[in-house]
Give the backbone structure.
Amino acid sequence: MLDSDKILHCKYFNRLSDKTQVFSFYRHDDITRRITHVQYVSKIARGIGKALGLDLDLIEAISIGHDIGHTAFGHKGEMFLNELYNKRTGRFFNHNVHSVRILRGEDLGLDIKTLDGILCHCGERAFLKYEPAKMPTLAEFEKTMTECYTQKDRVSKLKPATLEGCVVRVSDMIAYAIKDRQDAQKAGLKLHFKTDISNMEFITELSEDIVKNSKGKPYIAMSEKMFKLLTSVVEENNKLIYQSEAVTKLHYAAIKPMMAILYDYFLASGKNDDETVDYIAKMTDDYFIDFFKHLYPDHELNKLIKYVEYFDC
């Protein structure tokens, strides 16, 4: 069985349908969920990979598995869980590392190329050139996993060991950059961006440019022009969307203290820190909120949770 099939039928894959990307408190079918995002990444990466003659099955497996260990509530959920875990253990939680932990825990027998691509996928920063690292042995991979837990900046230095992994890494950024802007508009945010481009134009131009600059090369690259475009879009998004009070207010006011209370609850129930992180990271947005309310029905934090309903946007 292909690795992509194994991941697709993993019990945690379906939970991505209720894990939000950026907009966590919206009842809106057209706002991207993580399960849709991984499909966007797969489609973009497969298109680039096909033109470059790469292994499309490996690309698909890395793409659909890369966020399977992500928390609910987007990167704010990841940040809050990392703070709690680090404060108690001195170790670090990162969703890419946790994706590998979950998939290995399911004993799916995934190829090390798939696991390496998932571990090294993080696309928070663009590069002009993505040069694959040396393929690690199993012992080297284990060492890297340990370092990601114990060294704060180790994750930022990871490099995929395959061209396929490099393609997924840049496709991750391409997939979310303009789509997050579309979601912002659907959420009713009145934002004005300096860079004005449609999602399809963005995907097409970047994909064609990457193919042109990578064909026959031992690396994945893009032109200076496309690098500047991708970088400017992500930087604008970070300023106007990801750090905006309209997006993050409820995360800080409700989700952060709720997560701290649940973390203590699991510890008091006899779980260790790693087991506690496992429990919380597996939760979807709605389950997290409902579980907290189930445990603490009279807690004041429950009153803070308010959804933007379908016809409010």
